[in-house]
Amino acid sequence: MITGKFPSLRLRRNRKSDWSRRLVEENNLTPNDFILPIFLIDGKNKKQAIKSMPDVYRYTLDKVSFVVDKAIKKGLPMIALFPYTEKNKKNDLGTEALNENNLVCKAIQLIKKKYKNEIGIMCDVALDPYTSHGHDGLFKSGYVLNDETIKVLINQSLLQAQMGCDVLAPSDMMDGRIGKIRKALDKENFKNVQILSYAAKYASSFYGPFRDAIGSKNFFKGDKKTYQMDFRNSDEALREISLDIKEGADIVMVKPGMPYLDIIKSIKEKFKIPVFAYQVSGEYSLLSNAIKKKLVNKKIVFESLMAFKRAGANAIVSYYADRLDKIL
Ligand code: PBG
Known about the structure:
alpha/beta
């Protein structure tokens, strides 16, 4: 409660100098708050630019250590792996997801062998990098099948856990998958594999550049509105979160990030569970392009990331995570 009033009360007093502002700061960001997404691509000795995402690259496996080394040195707790899948490996059923020699499986093994437990690995559980139609699940007569998709997601989860993945992140928005995946993991003795549920994931146009990055842009038509959330809704996000918590999610994610700060805040207020935010590809490209065009100062990145903290996010998935020393 604020007592007193102007002119004896002056809120500007605490802002009078840098040291004072630092003392009264309510939030801050450190490398511990960040997860770095890494895009993988087949082949050798490649660091491939992604047209729609300035300064973000796809790496071949022989180059991945370079990125992971840097992430560890900068103090990041976790990386998230995403594969670019060549057209000839995509099909209707997304069977490449269950290939134990797929790019993600090879990357997990390589990273775990070299770095042990120095850094966490998070992997998406969803079929979209692997399906010829670009949907996150099995697609039949214009509809993404729920229960049938869950069966595949369970196998994808078990496979990634077996390879050494630390955190499984179902990002498909099928109903009931968290409980089923948890049960399967426990049964196979993966009791310590965490589940980070993309519980409030909206059908969003902010994912555009990501679809380019994983090579599903030219395959995907339509939208994901029958499974991802309607961006007009917020109560529904709380229902999604509450269900996933009951089903066993260890952490929940809100995605996209900046247009959904209200959702982060209400989840944080209502449920005492770690909440992560995903500053998605479209947000990243908007900010980066505006900076490149000198429309705005690069400090907008720090300001945007701080907004996640203020809203209550415990950690942020961000394509800026490998350049924090220039940002924080
Ligand atoms: C796949 C997935 C998507 C993103 C992360 N996992 C795209 C989608 O749902 O279409 C988007 C990330 C980004 O835009 O940075 N299920």
